[in-house]
Each structure stands twice: as structure tokens, then as C-alpha cells.
Amino acid sequence: MHPALDWTLVVVSYLLTWLAIPHVLLSSKRPASTLAWIWAILLFPFIGTALYFAIGTDRFKRRRLRHVSGHALPAHDETRHAQAALAAAPPHTQALLRGLTAINRIPLATTNCADLLVNAAEFYPRLLQAIRAAKHHVHVEFFIWRDDARGREFREALTDAARRGVAVRLLLDQIGCFGISHRFFRPLVEAGGHFSWFYSLPFGSHIRLANLRNHRKLQIIDGRIAFVGGMNIGEEYARPPGDPHYWRDAQLELGGAVVTQLQEAFATDWLFATKERIDSPDYFPQHDDTPGDQLCQVIAGGPDLPREPIPKSLVALLNAAQKRVWISTGYFAPDLLLLASMQVCAARGVEVRLLISEKSDHPFLVHVGRSYYEELLRFGVRVFEYSLGINHAKSILLDDDWVMVGSANSDNRSMRLNFELNVLVESPAAAHELERMMTEDFSVSREISLRGFLPRPLGRRLLEAALRPLAPLL
Length: 474
Fold this sequence. Notes:
Layout: H1 3-17, H2 20-25, H3 31-43, H4 45-56, H5 65-68, H6 79-87, H7 91-104, E1 109-111, E2 113-118, H8 119-133, E3 137-142, H9 149-163, E4 167-172, H10 186-190, E5 194-197, E6 218-221, E7 225-229, E8 247-248, E9 250-255, H11 258-274, E10 294-301, H12 309-320, E11 324-328, H13 336-347, E12 351-357, H14 363-370, H15 373-377, E13 382-386, E14 390-391, E15 395-398, E16 402-406, H16 412-417, E17 420-426, H17 428-443, E18 445-448, H18 450-453, H19 458-467
Parallel strand pairs: 3-4, 4-5, 8-14, 11-12, 12-13
Antiparallel strand pairs: 1-10, 2-9, 3-6, 6-7, 7-9, 10-17, 11-15, 13-18, 15-16, 16-17
Helix pairs in contact: 3-4, 7-12, 12-13, 14-19
């Protein structure tokens, strides 16, 4: 082939990759993400374009359970308890909860139990106990499940439940569980249980889902008890304090009407993965919550929700804070709205504290988070880096009565790409426990001061500056 023709083909091929740019512009991404993908296509035309169509086209529509169920689920019948409790709440609380309900399009609920479980040392035994006592069904959803002693222990507990006639469904993210095969769960399936991946590996028809993760951690027992939070299953997550790879995490155990809404969240995920509907009334038992029970708001996020409920809910919490907002997150890469909301909250006299990890399983995200420190510190936000191990907890303490625990970090992936699940609950007891936990965490953390942070080495500043523009893609 003539050399001139070779170059013509190269140039034409390069220009053809630009056809992806209109697709980027019409995808309604946030400006920073749009610009990042356009630059990737322009600077790395073939690789950038291929990556965009593989992982950048993240918006899609899921079939939702409520659109295909044969009858209405009972959650709406139980909101009367929540409405009675809401009517007795102070005006600022009513305003916050009405706003959160509108943002999330999930009715307000109540709980008759809200126990904060700190670390795997508290969570694992409680979950195992609940599985072993289950009578009708066990629904389990995790992001990561390891093929180790802990993973086998929980597999056996689920298998035993299936053998005694309990309906067991296990849903895992395929990328989160990379390295573990379907064969690992064969004993569960042979015992009559059900197992499914959430389908996120880029094979076949699922290639467009390659950048999406089901990051939710949700476990439901008999429709009566639910666990939600940030913990996964594996030996590494159960290491004791003092171990260099110690993990700090939190989970909530909940009972009452809110379990019905969490069951709906699991049923929707299961429907998407398996096309099986879970809509029998046996999975949605009635609850006897009373107006005196604690108010709850389920906050579910995912790329199929264009309203972006999780970041907007965080902004609503910061705007409603009167005394304090303590935020613990595994990864911190806020958008401008969340960053500004934290600044404004601190500027009006609310005590805003941010706890993130000095060590991380994704070290480059530590540098991304540090690139925002100066902007926070100048407005009075107190920043702490947890140094005892890896802080993986995703929790918020709001004033003295409100706790939010879930799977969502304060980064773009959790806010807009992952399927995430948080629960906000009004519980002075749980708030007291979270305050105790976070006070302990602050005591073993290094507080970052503006005076000490500004003169950091030039190399660190350049690294932070170089990584920060990539935050929308992380």
C-alpha cells in the first residue's frame, strides 16, 4: 500500500473517532465528566473512544419491580405510622424529611430497632445468628465476597438454611468478586438456594455495564430484620485493631416497616439480575410499628436514577444541620455542589468534621481527596485522616439524633455510577453509639491544619493537581 494512503487511513480513522464526541455531548453528563471524556477522545482517539463506549455510556433504564409486579406491595400501607410520627416532629425536621422524600421518591418509613454494629467483630456474629434462625427466607446482597475462611463460613450458613427449606437468594457483584467463581457457590445451589451475579463484567450484551457496580450491602431475614451498611464478606475485613490492614466499618441492623422498603430494593436488584419477581405477600409481612417508633428514610442511588438522589440528599442534610455534621467516608472526591455545601455549612457555625483514611485500598484516591483539603480548611471544616488502619465506614452523624449509614462514599462513583443504598434514621441511641465510635476514630487520627498542610512538598501538590481532574472518571 502506498505510504500516502497509509497516512490517509490513519487520519480518516482518527477523525472518525471524533464521531463519539456528539454522543458524549448528548449524554447529559456533568460538565467535568463531559470535558474529561472529550479530552480523552481527542488526546487518545482510539483508546479513549473505545473506553468511552465500553465504560462511559453509563445511563440505562432498569425494569423496576413496581412496574411489573402483579399487585401493589404493602409498603404504602405502612407509611401511615411514619406520617403520624412526622406530624409530631419539629418544623425543621418535617422540612428535611419532606425534602428527602421528594428527592428519593421513596416514602418515609419507621423502624422499631436501629442498632449500630461496629466492625465485622459485631456484624458477622449477628448476621450469622439471624441466618441460622431464619424460618422463611434469607436475602443477601454484597459487593465483595472472598473465597476464604469467612466466605466459606457464610456460604455454609446459607447452605444449611437452604437445606432446611428456607428460601435463600444470594446476589453479588461480579467485578467486586473478581477471582471467585460461580463454582464456589455450587453447594448452596445444590441445597436448593439461589445464586446470581449482578452482571457487570464486560462480556457479550453486558459490555455497556462494565463501568457500573452493585455496591450495595443489604441482608434481609424473613422480611423482619435488615442489615445495611458498608461491610463485605472476607477474612481481611475481620482483622483486629493493631493489624496493619485493619478495617474500620459500620452496619445498621433495622426492624419494622423500613424492612419492607429494603426488601423492595433487593427485589428490584434480583429482578434485574435474574428476571425473577419477588412479590409474594410472604416476603412482605405486615409490621406493627407505632407512631412512637423512629423515623427512617431509605436513600437508594444508581445510574438508572437521573435525579441523583444520594448527592442531593447529602446536600439536604448539610443544609438542615443545626449543631454538627460528622462525615466518615472511605473515599472523598466531592463535586462542586457537595464541596460548596460543606463550606457553607461550616461557615454558618455548624461543626463540620470529615474523617477519611490515611491508608486506602485505592491509594491514588487519597491524593484526590487531599486536593480538596485547602478549600475545606479555609471555611472551618475540620479534616481528620484515620491512621489506625483503613477507614471504610460510610456514616454521617447529624446533630444529636440522626444517623446515616450505608454503602455510598463521597465520590463520583458512589454518587452517580454505582448502585448504592443508605438509610437515615432518627435514633438517639444509635447516634450516641456513632458519636462514641467517631470520637474514638478522631482520637487515633491525624487532624490536618491549614498551616501544616500548605507547605507540603511540591511533588505532592503536583500529584494532587494531576489526579484531581480525573475524579469524575473514577
